[in-house]
């Protein structure tokens, strides 16, 4: 390497901020962090704000509705609701919102999130909470994890470094659970949540001493698609006690800050089949309910 190339290389490192997720060294030429695959645009966006980012991760098994929930949440924040107002910081943050709203307007749900971490959509939204005596502002940073990637990381830790690094930095989790799957296959969903809780405990290095209210992350359990499961919508706490008793007990012991919610994005939907016998759920109209409340609680309690 000649002197000019050495200078350019040194300049690329000196002008690049460390990764906002794992603190790994980056260069101005990087599109993703080589350590955790966090997009460089997220790091640049957050570092420009010169504030501590507030990671709130939306996690859950495949088909729990994470993409739809995140996209609708951002859309509601942009309009303002329950004294929460969000402003996307960067065009990349609008991509997820656009994907979800466009799909719903066309009477369909968006495509599944790919397993490759470099294809995940991220959002960075500056959220202002004016519900208390003092106005609170947080930099809400969240990736749209693929459910299969989360499941793989839980089974084989280290498979997806992005999941590990983000979980370590997360102050609050929104754990999404498909209410119909919980009702019909409660044991399976209960055990997945148990593995997720154990993974969070492990990655954040929580010990018996550290399991106090101020040192543990806030956990919001959100039963999604409650338009098709009225019992979850009616009393989510009782629904969790009846169908996910193991994880309920786990939260009571390990996560002092936890709450249970129910949410839905569409008012009604139906299962339709085509000539080949393939079945897909089709949304009839958008009618979000309970989407903003879990985030508001997470901001207040983390």
The largest sheet has its strands arranged as 2-3-4-1-5-6-7
Largest beta-sheet characterization: 7 strands, mixed
What is the CATH architecture descriptor? 3-Layer(aba) Sandwich
Coarse morphology:
globular
What is the CA-based Rg, rounded? Answer: 20 Å
Beta-strand segment tally: 9
SS-based class: alpha/beta
Mean pLDDT level: 86
Strand content: 15-25%
Q: Any idea what the CATH superfamily is called?
A: P-loop containing nucleotide triphosphate hydrolases
How many separate structural domains?
1
Q: Into which percent range does the helicity of residues fall?
A: 40-55%
Instruction: Note the total helix count.
Output: 12
Q: In terms of per-residue confidence, which ranges show pLDDT below 50 for 5 or more consecutive residues?
A: 2-13
Encode the helix/strand succession as letters.
HHEHEHEEHHEHHEHHHEEEH
CATH topology: Rossmann fold
Terminal CA distance reads 48 Å
CATH class: Alpha Beta
How would you describe the overall organization of this protein?
By secondary structure, the chain is of the alpha/beta class. The protein has helices at residues 3-14, 40-49, 66-79, 92-105, 147-155, 161-169, 179-184, 186-203, 230-234, 236-243, 245-254, 292-300, and strands spanning 53-59, 84-88, 122-129, 136-143, 172-178, 218-224, 258-262, 264-273, 279-289. It has a seven-stranded mixed beta sheet with strand order 2-3-4-1-5-6-7, with helices on both faces. α3 (66-79) crosses α4 (92-105) and α8 (186-203) packs parallel to α11 (245-254). The protein starts with a helix and ends with a helix.
